[in-house]
Amino acid sequence: MLISYGMSIVGSSHVTKNSPCQDSHCYQVLSNGWVTAAVADGVGSAKHSEIASKMACDIFIETCKEQITEDTKFSEAKKIIAEAYRKADLKIKEYVGELEDSITDYDTTLSAVIYDGRKLIYGHSGDGGIVALTYNGDYIKVTEPQKAEDGICVIPLRAGENHWEFGECEADVASVLLATDGVYDNFMPYLLKGQPVEFYIPLIRWFMDNNVIGITEQNRQEVEDSRRSFLCGDSCKSITDDKTVLVVFNADMSPKLKEDSYYAEPDWSKLQDIWNRKAYPHLYKDKSDDFSENDFKENPSQNERTCSDEVETDSFQNITKHSSGSDTQTNIPDNPVTDDTANGNQSKFFSIFKRHKK
User: Fold this and answer.
1) For residue range 106-158, what is the model confidence (pLDDT) as tens digits?
2) Containing H/E element for 187?
3) Could you count the other beta carbons within 10 Å of the beta carbon of residue 357?
4) Cβ–Cβ under 8 Å, residues 111 and 178
5) How many angstroms separate the CA atoms of 128 and 125, rounded?
6) What SS3 state is found at 326?
7) Which of 74, 56, 79 is nearest to 8 (CA)?
8) Measuring CA to CA, which of 4, 149, 207, 254 is 20 to 30 A from 280?
9) Quick one: 235 exposed, middle or buried, by C-beta within 10 A (0-12, 13-18, 19+)?
10) To 10 degrees, the CA torsion angle through 303, 308, 310, 313?
11) pTM of the predicted protein model
12) Cα–Cα distance, 50 to 72 (Å, whole number)
């Protein structure tokens, strides 16, 4: 049996500005028992993006419902998911054209899947992403955030199919999680970048591992409510962007358990020290230690700054700006030795989560 839960929560920065939640999500059990699911993040700088994100999800799901029947083979799903993307993009552009409005005011991302309880077909446009938990208990980063060459501007759905990503997960999938960047970035903290496991396992496991969740039709709402409470609580105050998570489980399959060390809390102090020494070598040049650069893998930019709408790519102009990066990630301090935010925000988030889940 396939069971889903999901939520879209307005971010505190949007509440302050009296603006709506620009995220959307939708899922549907199809006539043949498969589940199709989608999340979309309306771009913060686009003033009507909440309309586009809802349209993208709704049209994607409706197209899958129309085209997938009891006789549909899973090998046909990739073609169907691509058609659903094309239709969502077209319908949004037609809607904007009828209003004689600017398409840049309706920018959105779209991440979506078709899942049969074992096999997973996915589509992706923009940032945020999709994570799969395999039968073997491995967490797989299914998609990569799509950014322009500057590494800042998000590539939206309207960029077209030359930028969209479609594929099939090679491993058997026990559950799949879709999230907008307000949540997704916190599943993969920058301190874990380049580590053997880049996910913060204790956190993401609580959202999608049925060994610890035990989701059923009877407790599905309770599971959703507890995750909503967490995302709305003190643990996530630093996430001011909208927050969307959507998870689909094969409730008849619990992923294989690994060694206890796989689920252990990372040594955040050590990881922070490694990062500090690489990022600020001048502060450590006179100190002898056993630090090796091999212990560190370079992290991505931590603060997406707002950029101009006028950015050219190989296929179109006006890649959109996205303010979400500064909403979701811990700031890197100018001086990690004297600035307590170097360890503060990150470790506080994790310690509060540990107390919450108990």
Assistant:
1) 999 999 999 999 999 999 999 999 999 999 999 999 999 998 888 778 999 99
2) helix 181-187
3) 14
4) yes
5) 9
6) helix
7) 56
8) 149
9) buried
10) -10
11) 0.82
12) 32
